[in-house]
Amino acid sequence: MIRAEKGKPSSGSRIIxxxxxxxxxxxxxxxxxxxxxxxxxxEILEDPLAPWTRDREVLPDELSACxxxxxxxxxxxxPFHLITGSVPFLEERFxxxxxxxxxxxxxxxxxxxxxxxxxxxxPERILDLGCGSGIxxxxxxxxxxxxxxxxxxxxxxxxxxxxxxxxxxxxxxRIHFVQGDWIxxxxxxxxxxxxxxxxPYIASGDLSGLDPxxxxxxxxxxxxxxxxxxxxxxxxxxxxxxxxxxxxxAAVEIGSCQGDFFRSDAGFVSGCGAPLVFPDILGxxxxxxxxxx
Length: 293
Prior knowledge:
Blueprint lengths: L14 H11 L7 H12 L5 H4 L7 H15 L4 H5 L1 E4 L2 E4 L12 H11 L6 E5 L5 H9 L4 E6 L2 H13 L6 E5 L2 H4 L6 E6 L14 H4 L15 H13 E10 L5 H5 L12 E4 L5 E7 L2
GO molecular function: nucleic acid binding; peptide chain release factor N(5)-glutamine methyltransferase activity
EC number: 2.1.1.297
Organism: Leptospirillum ferriphilum YSK
């Protein structure tokens, strides 16, 4: 276990002193240590501007103890949002916990492209495959007040976290959670108006090269997409025409190097045609959409 250095501020020290200590402790990170130090303290004070506007204030002992603990956890490469317990996504904030995939900003483009494709149409039945912390299904329920969502995940922890988020964000009455392998439990004549998923898409052989924050703290089953990273997509594409209603849309997140697979003949789905591939905020291939009929 990494031990705190002797230079840690004492009781009654100012916020600015703790920030300097935090920056020094986090200097081993590949990211900007000053930013990480500020962001952690901003979370504790529930005010992202506090590191600038309140830096001369004394940090209370109970908060300084929490901050010191968080800095040491981050120093050991525990992900920032697992430490704080929540992550912003679109206009909301979602709880996360060990055993769930941490939502990334690029996933927001899935919801944004779905809204663009649907235009003014409102889906009634939404299917969220591998729901994780529930960010996709819940975000769409917030956008479509009359819709209902079936959220499926293989693991218990993501479903518990999703339920917590659904309750906090006021959509629990419109979402139903099911544990298991979706392809084994869903009838292929369900007729969903919208299917969304952020599936595992990293090739098995590439997992060992991931950052420690991902490799050691995020669930492998949410990352490992098989030998070429495309196992989930092939399973989905095989049953997609039966799962979608006429005019229904399916949208999935993909790896940034997987777009050409979907642009080729391999991405064509009978009854749904060729998919559309959209970029994320960095201009990288990120979202694939099919529309039935």
